[in-house]
Automatic annotation (TrEMBL):
It holds the Pfam family p450. Belongs to the cytochrome P450 family. Signal peptide: none annotated. The chain crosses the membrane at residues 21-40. It comes from the Eukaryota. GO terms for molecular function: heme binding; iron ion binding; monooxygenase activity; oxidoreductase activity, acting on paired donors, with incorporation or reduction of molecular oxygen. This is Cytochrome P450 1A1-like protein 1. PANTHER family: CYTOCHROME P450, P450, PUTATIVE (EUROFUNG)-RELATED.
Amino acid sequence: MVLPAIRIGFMESPAHKLGPGLAILLVCLVCLFLCIQAFFHFGPCRPLPGIPRNKLSWMGFKGDIIEVFKAGNTMDWLLEQSRKHGPICQLFLRPLKQPFVLISDYTVAQAIMLKRKEWDRSDYSIELLSGQAPMHHINLKTGPEWRAHRKLIQDLMGQSFLNNVAAPNIYSSTLNLVELWTMKERTANGHAFSATDDVIHSTLDAAWAFTFGDAFPVKAIHQGTISCAPVTFTEHKVTFGSPSQLPAVEATLGASDIVGELAASPCPTTSWYIMRATSKRVKRHLAIRREYVQEQIMAAVERLHVTDPVLAEGKVKFTSATDFVVRRVKDCAESAGEVPDYLSETVFGLIIGGHDTTSTTKSWGLKHLADNQIVQDRLRASLRASFSLATQERRMPTVQEITGTCIPYLDAVLEEILRLACSLAILDRQATCDTEVLGHHIPKGTIVMMLNRGPSFTEPAFDEALAGGLSVAGTGSSWVVHTLHHFMPERWLETNDQGRSFFNPKAGPTLPFGSGPRSCYGRKLGYLDLRIVFVLLVWRFKLHKCAPELSTYDAVETLTYKPERCYVNLESIKE
């Protein structure tokens, strides 16, 4: 009785009624489905055993990508995943590729970055940045070629360059910003105005100046345009008209915008090739940047043959970062008047590296100081006391005074700005061999993303139970965990045996420049820039708190994690 029942059931099935052709098609579709499932189970996008993940995210072509798009803000979504899954989880953010591993703990992140042999620059970061500068050292894996390219800029973090070239140029560009804001403050008459573009342009001018010298002909800030710019007043703010950008300014700022567009794509390399082949804007920007960078390099080559009579016989005076770099590769630059690509990319990298993250950090710093009046007042009082001669003479501190005076509270304020700004909110590394993180096996080639905010940074760390008994909160910090999201520079200050306050840069968890051999090479330059800018701005202006709708901490994501709004309500301080 069983066999006829099976036979009748088969004879009456839909596949039989559809005919042999459609039946074969149905069988093929089933086989294809099984092959796809086998691919996801055993292919490159299979989940890593034991590491928490979103349910079923690995089984589709789009993985977690749709959820990221729905969230709108990648950083906020990543933070939500860390709170949901714990100190380690895996995310499928690229079609048909290995998952990323997300780490949400300071101690683990620091350990990964300090391990020289097990971890290296990630392929994903290289995909994002290498399109515009493939031979820059940041886009090379650690090895002889990377060391050779990085050696080109080894002089730029020495005291000779920082004190004699970078600092004066940053100081001069900041004075231009002070002059511009003094004019705007008079016109604003107690209203707030957007500081975003002014901060970006001032920082770009500084980067151009210390990269090429103060004779570089292009300036992003033009004080003269404020007098004829249209002005619109509303209840809480005033809007100044924006003068048209010079081609070099637009092309340089466009480099960061391109990286932001690529970061929003699940396939950055493909997107870059399409963009470069089809976008007139991208082609124009690349041509403009290449032209002015090569012109400045050749000018630096010519300067190598000019000795300064003030210096000792045969000595050349270096007035820019390009002078220092070209000195090391002058033979290559002089050959047939042709500039090697890697030299142009090294020089252009100084501009982007010295501009984008720094301007973003300044914008966050202005917001924090305006919203924390007690901190701002204490900082100003500390500056007045430390620069007593400038106070007596009713003038601004000189660049030598700013760079040569130890002010612990200023250092603490800058460190706290960097901690909460999170201009680079995500750090990443790629495993060069099979390794282990928080007790989980990490195969070779896996990319690990490490958050620079959230748990153990700006929120309490996960307890040991979530890490399988492993210690994940051992930062050695005595900070009160429920205040981690507050702006409190005092957390970086300690008292010595003589009762004097001193700045301790290792007082707590922060990684604004990364760590280890692939950390940000321009750390000293970044601190110097922030130091000069905030001394001059806080000395010259009272930063009043803006209206609530202008003081939000919402962010937008490009190359960096920028504030969506950065407004200032200024009051000039009479000397």
